[in-house]
Amino acid sequence: MRPGSKQRSTVWEHFKKNVDKTTVSCQICKKDLKFYGNTTNLKEHLKRKHPTALIIPASTADDPDSELHSIESINNLSNFQSSSTNSNSQTESSTLNQTLTKRSRQLTLYGTTKNNELTVAENNEIDKCLVKMITADYQPLSIVENVGFLEFTKKIQPLYTPPSRKLLTTKLLPDQYNVIYLKLKYMLENVNDVSITTDMWTSDSTRSYITVTCHFIFNDCLYSPVLATEEVKESHTGENIASALSNIFNEWNISNKIVTIVSDNGANIKHAINDHLLKYHHPCVAHTLNLSVNESINQNTEFLRVLKICRAIVGHFKHSNLATEKLKEFQKQMGLPELKVKQDVCTRWNSSLNMIERLIQIKNPLSAAMSSLRRAPNCLTSNEWDIITDCAPILKPFESLTIELSGEKYPTLSLVIPLVRGLQYTVRKVRPETDADPKLKKTAFGLEDNANNSQQWLVDELTSIISINNGANDNNIENINETPASLTSTGSSYSLWDHFDQKVTEVRSVICPNVSATLMMRQYLELPHLPREKNSLDFWKQHKMILPELYKLQQKYLCIPATSVPSERVFSKAGLLTNDRRNRLSPKNLNYIIFLNSNLNLL
Question: Annotated region Disordered: where (predicted)?
Answer without folding.
Answer: 79-99
